[in-house]
Amino acid sequence: MPTLMPQALRAMTHLIARRMGSEDAEAAEVADHLVRANLAGHDSHGVGMLPSYVRNFHNGLLVPNQAPETVLDAGALLVIDAKRGFGQQMAANAVKRAIAKAKEMGACVLAFRNASHIGRIGTYAELAASRGCAFTAFVNVADHHDIQATFGAAEARLGTNPFCCAVPGSDGPAVMLDMATTTIAAGKARVAYNKGTTVPDGCLIDADGNPTNDPTGLIRDHAGALRAFGAHKGSGLAVMCEIMTAAIAGGQGSFVPGKGGTLNSMLAIVIDVSKIGDPAKVDADIQAVKTHVKSAKVAPGVEEVLMPGEPERRMAAKRAQAGIDVDDTTWRDIRAAAQSLGIDDAEFDRTVGANRR
Fold first, then answer.
1. Confidence of residue 187 (pLDDT cuts 50, 70, 90)
2. SS3 for 343?
3. Which parts of the chain fold into alpha helices (H)?
4. Which domains, from first to last, does the chain contain?
5. Rounded distance between C-alpha atoms, residue 330 and residue 56, angstroms
6. What is the dihedral of CA 84, 242, 179, 187, to 10 degrees?
7. Which carries the bigger pLDDT value, residue 277 or residue 250?
8. Which of 43-52, 86-95, 168-177, 336-345 has the lowest mean pLDDT?
């Protein structure tokens, strides 16, 4: 299992994205986004996504350097169709436009449609928070077989359908919640499968609807499903994510037969907090909530009460120094994807090696 520093993984990802046809700026955006996901501890959304990106590119389901279509730009409403463009670049640019509108008008509702996989939603929340904006997003996942079973169902009908919310602090998000509405993300099941390990209890059902810890059926056979977190509550949020994106934002829904790719749509609300109240008081009240929550006596077996986003920040600091582990199966798949783009072993190793610490 190789352990690589962030700069080596960024260089590798940049090389692969460039060879897919991305211009330098887009390749850099994709590389930075994926490696930041790894740094945060979310390997499910990190460089392990590259083989599926390359596969979708070969199948015409991911379009590098795509020009997004502005469907509507009216007041506080912004509607953008990404037309299967590289998700990280498309979503970052759309959120930047929404932030600019929020700075002008106080708030912006962004309906963002049909991007290839946009990755870790928290990255866009961090972007908004770094510019003094609160951020809330409903996201769906379409264009491939369903993988989430809603409450009471014995088979899948939705994607992982993430929800994200963040508020600004002095140097980024003061608090950030970023989660799939499934008990675990699909990528975490993929990581477990690649490592030959199981997933925790309550995460999966098999093809007959029975609980299982083995991700093989879901990942290899496309059978079974991820379960919604929190029983009917998480399931209800997943359904609302689907409706807010596929119906309200106008993106592709899971009810549309997929082509085997990944399409994300997002309905995001961006609010400039300085336009809605005294920023100093807002910040003080956020800190008061954090202090109050963290002052609780810890439960047996728990070391510390944490706020949403704290585990990711701590993991990022740790991995920035120690490096990022990539399991052997994922590493082999990444190398194979690179080879399919004409990147031979010598060029691959030279790019990675030149950026090792």
1. confident
2. coil
3. 6-19, 24-39, 50-58, 87-105, 122-130, 186-195, 216, 232-242, 279-294, 310-322, 328-340, 345-354
4. 10-60+327-357 (1.10.1530.10)
5. 17
6. -50
7. 250
8. 168-177
